[in-house]
Design a protein that fits this description.
The longest helix is centred in the N-terminal third of the chain and has 21 residues. The chain starts with a helix and ends with a strand. The protein has 158 residues and is α+β, with helices and mostly antiparallel strands. It is built from four helices and four strands. It has a four-stranded antiparallel beta sheet with strand order 2-3-1-4, covered by helices on one side. The chain has a domain of 75 residues: Sporulation related repeat (Alpha-Beta Plaits, 2-Layer Sandwich), CATH 3.30.70.
Length: 158
């Protein structure tokens, strides 16, 4: 009962303050700044022609030398770090061939590689630069191959 009485007192005081605010009016006109009209002929702008600015600190030569050194380094590289999706890894060749066959039925657009690294066979799919690039195909293959994992691998450059 006390809670009900407190709630009614609160609502009445809150409602009364809202009524008091609705009847309040204050004229602020005397406090506003006075602005005089401006003559438009005094403020005409003249368009200036853009002037060419000559560079003073040339970095083109330095940038070109750095780019050339990066290019020479890239020409010596034969492999790039990448990611592939491994869908099978085991000792039985028949199971590896079955996984490859299942892949061609499930996702014919993806090619697979069958590798033998003693003592096991590996079936991998795709060659991606980053794991983010591989995520779309990885999620799709994970449904058919629950043991699929992403494997970091060195990819040969062409």
């Amino acid at each position: 009962m006390k809670k009900l009485g407190f709630g009614l007192v609160f609502l009445m005081s809150w409602g009364g303050s809202a009524l008091a605010q609705r009847n309040h009016y204050e004229d602020l006109a005397p406090l506003r700044p006075r602005v005089s009209p401006v003559d438009e002929t005094l403020h005409q702008t003249v368009k200036a022609e853009p002037t060419a600015v000559k560079p003073t600190h040339h970095v083109t030569g330095k940038v070109n030398s750095v780019l050339d050194s990066i290019n020479r380094f890239n020409l010596t590289r034969r492999y790039v770090d990448g990611v592939t999706i491994q869908i099978y890894s085991g000792a039985k060749r028949e199971e590896a061939l079955n996984a490859r066959k299942k892949l061609t039925e499930y996702a014919p657009d993806l090619g697979s590689n069958l590798m033998y690294q003693q003592p096991k066979f590996r079936v991998t799919v795709g060659a991606y630069y980053t794991s983010l690039d591989a995520q779309k195909d990885f999620q799709r293959l994970k449904r058919a191959f629950p043991n699929a994992i992403l494997i970091p691998e060195k990819m040969p450059m062409k």
